[in-house]
């Protein structure tokens, strides 16, 4: 055991972090907790958990947001070597290590790296899953010991068991989300529903909603136009202006979507039904189909409305060209408190930079 930590301290660290990890299902958060646990267990400046992406043949680590990803080629550099061979690496001279990759260093570190421990770990089936990396000992001696490596090996073994189930659950959730995207794509173009989902998530956070609510609206919002599945293609894809009768037909998609979803026994889908029904309502009561006003409109529908219109205005459609960003923002300023909930418009302006990053990431 390291001479810089007492047994009772170590036990407290392990109990505290394993309790938090056991109740967590978000991969980014689990990786963050594991890394923090490793740092405290062996007094390291930084720890990272690397995972194998079998499809791209890369190693990656992520932050609490999936957009904070760092990737390196599988088998490349010291970490890649350790994962590929299953060998534990302990060094106090990382910069002089024979398998060091300077390009990987630039991608993965923001501080000078001296000492390093890398412990590969596997899943329950014995197949390599990733590696636990500790960087720079945070004590006067500045060097990692054999005891440090032993403790980190225990943490790595626990990481393998913990991460396997979390990764599986994330894959299931991602598959379910993909199904919703595909279903919601009816009558839409390119990545519209994916962008609306991500915008809605950011707007919810901008409003100060709990992350759980933001996650729920991210799942729900892609279903807002599901009722368009019952609208004739001649109306849905008409390049010119709709006639009054065609517009009435188009408006029916809100009620149709509601009826498609409301019979579900799942609360999430029943809320999605309300969003489908209400996302064309307006803050001042002039929308459709119920002419609801203000907070009588479900908050998720108010958020989805802003996300949907923002993306629609900035996208090419059969009946129009994409607007310039200054035109889009001008419309939201003028319709604040009229068409749109003023608080949601304010959240859009607050979150505009990450919204634009999503727009760039998921182009048509």
From TrEMBL:
Keyword Zinc-finger annotated: no
GO terms assigned for molecular function: kinase activity
Organism domain of life: Bacteria
Keywords, alphabetical: Kinase, Transferase
Protein name: Histidine kinase
Pfam families, per the entry: GAF_2, HD_5
Domain HD-GYP, chain residue ranges per copy: 167-364
Keyword flag Transferase: yes
Species in which this protein is naturally found: Paenibacillus beijingensis
